[in-house]
Every structure is written in structure tokens, then in C-alpha cells.
Design goal:
This protein is mainly beta. 10% of the residues lie in helices and 44% in strands. Strands 12-2-14-15 form a 4-stranded antiparallel beta sheet, with no helix packed on it. A 4-stranded mixed beta sheet has the order 4-3-6-9, with no helix packed on it. The radius of gyration is 19 Å and the shape is globular. It starts with a helix and ends with a strand.
């Protein structure tokens, strides 16, 4: 019992130390001229000397009620996305490029109740569509670090547990120009204001 208690205490101390040495990046995006400040991807572009392994956990995109749910997702490069057809009709999932590279196009038929998986190993944005139902559209944004967020309805976002350092904070949105802003992260929360325009 004593050994177990010491192990738990040691593990807790290590966890607290790791969390204490990281900071949250909090901010708000203003979007003049855009339809909305919601669902704008904000992410740390790179961390020098660090590579990130693909996560073991898959991300799910459901095709339900003739819509991609969620409509927008941000994922770390190497993440596998499971495309589930939750409808009673056939769908296909296709994208013509990733980050503008047409050599990375893909097309998958997904029958009702079926799941097709794809590992996204290339950076950039894929606009996902369904040939059978042209109203269906979604976006998958593939980024190089696990430090990312999607803005809420008011444009606010939080990127948790970013290691201290100086980085480039980038964003992507459906109808706005991508921007880059320098940010210095400390052990305390870092507050930023971003503007995304047409």
C-alpha cells in the first residue's frame, strides 16, 4: 500500500510539474467582412526541434441528415479520420486536394452504417464533399502541432498547455485570408487578439 501511495504521489507530482511548465493561449478573433467569427482554426505553426507522433485515437466525422458532423475539424498531421455514414442512403466522401495539392485527391463510397477511414499525413485543408448530395460540405484542417483550437460563436478560443517559447500563431477560415502572428508563451495564460478579414 505504501509503495502504491508513493507511486501515485510521484505521478501526481510529475503531472503537476508538466502542467506548471505550460501555458494556455487565450484570445478572440474579430472577423470584419466575414459571415462569422465562429469555426476559425487557430494553431501554433511549429515548435523547433519537436516532432509529434500521430495520435492513436481516431477522429469521427458522421454523415448524418445529409450533413457532415462536425462541419469543421482541426487535426494533427497523421491523425486517422473515420467517416461514418449514419444516414439510410449511400454517400461518398471526396476531396479534390489537400492544401491545394491535387495529387492528394481522394474518393470513398460509404454505404449506410459503414465506416471508411483515412489517415491525413499531409498539411493543409481538405474540403470534403459528397457527389450524391451536393449540399454536403465540410472542412478538415491538418496542422503540424497538437496545439490548436476552433473559435466559438463569439470568436473566442483557448489552446491549452502550450510549452513556453516564441511561436507563429496561424489561422484558417472558409472565407477569410490566413494570417500569421508572433506569440510568446509563458507559464501564465497568454492573451492574444487576432483579426481575420476577406
Amino acid at each position: 500500500m505504501k509503495t502504491f501511495s508513493r507511486t501515485v504521489i510521484l505521478a501526481s507530482a510529475v503531472f503537476v510539474t508538466v502542467v506548471a511548465n505550460a501555458g494556455d493561449v487565450k484570445g478572440k478573433v474579430s472577423a470584419p467582412g466575414l459571415k462569422s467569427a465562429e469555426n476559425i482554426a487557430v494553431y501554433i505553426d511549429a515548435i523547433a526541434g519537436k516532432k509529434f507522433d500521430p495520435p492513436a485515437q481516431h477522429v469521427m466525422v458522421n454523415q448524418l441528415n445529409l450533413a457532415f458532423t462536425p462541419h469543421d475539424i482541426v487535426i494533427l498531421r497523421g491523425t486517422t479520420v473515420d467517416f461514418l455514414n449514419g444516414d439510410h442512403v449511400a454517400h461518398n466522401v471526396f476531396w479534390s486536394s489537400i492544401g491545394g495539392n491535387k495529387a492528394l485527391k481522394q474518393n470513398m463510397m460509404v454505404s449506410p452504417g459503414q465506416t471508411k477511414s483515412f489517415q491525413f499525413n499531409n498539411l493543409g485543408t481538405a474540403q470534403i464533399l459528397c457527389n450524391l448530395h451536393t449540399e454536403m460540405v465540410g472542412y478538415i484542417i491538418v496542422v503540424p502541432t497538437p496545439y490548436f483550437a476552433l473559435t466559438g460563436s463569439d470568436g473566442s478560443f483557448t489552446i491549452n498547455n502550450v510549452p513556453p517559447g516564441s511561436y507563429n500563431l496561424k489561422n484558417w477560415s472558409v472565407d477569410g485570408k490566413p494570417t500569421t502572428q508572433a506569440v510568446t508563451v509563458t507559464n501564465a495564460p497568454t492573451n492574444v487578439q487576432l483579426t481575420v478579414s476577406k
